[in-house]
Amino acid sequence: MSTTASSSEEQMAELSCANLPAQARVLIGGLGFGFTLKRVLALTGPDAVVDVAELLPVIVEWNREFLHEVNGQLLDDPRVRIHVRDVYELIDGCGNERYDTILLDVDNGPDPFVQDVNERLYQKPGIERIKQALRPGGRVIFWSAHPDKSFAKSLQGAFRNVECIPAKAYPKAKRFTHTLFVADRT
Ligand SMILES: C[S@@+](CC[C@H](N)C(=O)[O-])C[C@H]1O[C@@H](n2cnc3c(N)ncnc32)[C@H](O)[C@@H]1O
């Protein structure tokens, strides 16, 4: 993570918020430096609810104490609900409180390193669970540091429409180094 390379995180927010209803329910995992959260808040209305799952308490503390100058007081926004939890637990436990969009930027992509158990987010049963946590017409986006044909195929097995969108790390970057996997539920 870097405070100077946030383009792909912001692009992820823009792709996820393109067609949201006024009372949108959004889930972001994880918080990181809050670039995705900041852009989501800019693109959603006052009645949106934005759940943010962050595994590491220290990341939430850094955002509150040190990142005001970078990202403002995002965590004080009344639309934001911070959960110091594994994002998979929120997805698995959401019941009928489903989401219009889910933004997953927790690892380098389908090769988890923060914790081994993150693998479940990229495997077929986890993908199916994510789909069930979306409202009809909902969208999930996975951030990845690289393309991955096999992961795209797994998504295509569950979702109506899947796109692998190249993304830049920063606006003037010459190359598209990251990939955003965008999947829409019927
Ligand atoms: C690359 S950063 C996210 C960057 C973020 N999109 C931004 O705009 O700054 C990844 C974050 O996900 C968190 N994380 C990793 N695994 C997680 C999980 N299973 N649930 C919730 N957060 C997780 C990490 O602690 C880290 O803060």
TrEMBL record:
Species for this entry: Luteolibacter yonseiensis
Swiss-Prot/TrEMBL keywords: Polyamine biosynthesis, Transferase
Family (UniProt): Belongs to the spermidine/spermine synthase family.
Annotated protein name in UniProt: Spermine synthase
A GO molecular function held by the record: transferase activity
Native organism taxonomy: Bacteria, Pseudomonadati, Verrucomicrobiota, Verrucomicrobiia, Verrucomicrobiales
Active site: D105 (proton acceptor)
SUPFAM superfamilies, sorted: S-adenosyl-L-methionine-dependent methyltransferases
Biological processes per GO annotation: polyamine biosynthetic process
CDD domains: AdoMet_MTases
Keyword Transit peptide: no
Occurrences of domain PABS (ranges): 1-186
Signal peptide: none
InterPro entries recorded: PABS, SAM-dependent_MTases_sf
